[in-house]
Amino acid sequence: MGRKWNNIKDKKASKDKNTSRIYAKFGREIYVAAKQGEPDPESNQALKVVLERAKTYSVPKHIIDRAIEKAKGGSEENYDENRYEGFGPNGSMVIVDTLTNNVNRTASEVRAAFGKNGGNMGVSGSVAYMFDHVAVLGVEGKTEDDVLELLMEADVDVRDIAEEDESVIVYMEPDQFHEAQEAFQSIGITEFTVAEITMLAQNHVELPASDLEQFEKMIDALEDLEDVGQVYHNVDLGE
Predict the structure, then answer these.
(1) Which helix (H) or strand (E) holds 94?
(2) 37-41, 112-116, 208-212, range with the lowest pLDDT
(3) Quick check: is 172 in a domain?
(4) Which of 53, 56, 67, 174 is a good FRET partner for 24, with 20 to 30 A between their CA atoms?
(5) Alpha-carbon span 21 to 81, nearest angstrom
(6) What is the reported pTM?
């Protein structure tokens, strides 16, 4: 599907390595997932997904434990999940998922991040139809054939598979994420290089250098917002 997952993760980690921003965002996601169901990942699939993703970004255990304990303690802090869609330069498309306790503030900040960097917000549905909702898992130490055979035996319908660096990256329907995890765990694989339920662009666009520079500034501005959890787009960044 044309997306270099490990390179993207490394780029994000490099950008955030000297800050606690990424950990704070994961702490919020973990808290919300734990509060919406049981604070136990074995009985709360949403929490399990967030925790697996947090592990691939090396979120410290104390951040995870603190967020879960906060949910167990009955905190009255509430957050709303919202999605914004918009456009960048030269036909680029962007989806922004947020988690906020102040919707008006977040909407204003997202709109400003688009507007100040050559983009504009669109209406709901103006962009999302050009993206697919997929689950992605990455594992090391196995070949594509090994992974395909394992997942076929587990009745997981693989949409795509690719080798990247030393990982095999598998794409599947979101509702098969847990079946795939369990299949890997049955053969002793408990650590994943990628563990995401995400939005993937159906087609990618290449931007000229000047537009690409502006687009990357826009993405950075969006990702830097406290309430923004995930940003998806259709631009080939050349990773």
Answers:
(1) strand 93-100
(2) 37-41
(3) yes
(4) 174
(5) 18
(6) 0.86
